[in-house]
Amino acid sequence: MNGMSGNHSGENSCDFTIEVVGEGHVSAAPDRTLITLGAATENKDVQPAQSENAEISTAIIEALTGLGIPRSHIQTKSYTVEPQYDYEDGKQVFRNYKVTHLLLITLDGIAAAGKVIDTAVTSGANLVVDISFASSESEKHEAEALALAVQDAQAKAASIAAALGVSISAVPCKVQQIVRDSESVRYKSALMASDASTPIEPGQLTFKAAVRVWYLFA
């Protein structure tokens, strides 16, 4: 909230201030793609489920490296073995074991995302959990958004001061960054038919920043 405050206690270096919140936004095209996909297999015995899963996962990895993706860009994100149950007449009845192996694939660029998904599915992947996009210059864009937020706060404070007929200090007496949860850009969709390439539309990344600033006025 924007406003004015006064304090005669002398304990606060920001007595008689105009308080404003500034916001900044910077848009940028993503140049990295993060894809989480893998395979889930089920069997009444755990070892066959694990063996089948291992075969599929190996086939996926080999197919992806065949596309030119470095092995270091393919890593296990999670591996779980879980018993599955049915409920009959209020009782828990064991059905089978489910083995899930998820891989995180990091791509430089975004153009190959659809081909990577199609290749993985053709190789046996039956889970495409998440696709997100990022920028290799995120720190630069975050700094730009922060600078815009400070400028926005300064402009708001100047407007308030002008309306009140007072002057404000050239330098704020206090600046506080407002930390907010970052928003990832994700793509989720049902896979298309095998004779068509999966379309991926990343759009733009938005970097946001906000600050709370206090200006002395007189």
UniProtKB/TrEMBL annotation:
InterPro entries membership: 26kDa_periplasmic_antigen, SIMPL/DUF541
One biological process term in Gene Ontology: DNA damage response
Name of protein: DUF541 domain-containing protein
Source organism (scientific name): Paenibacillus paeoniae
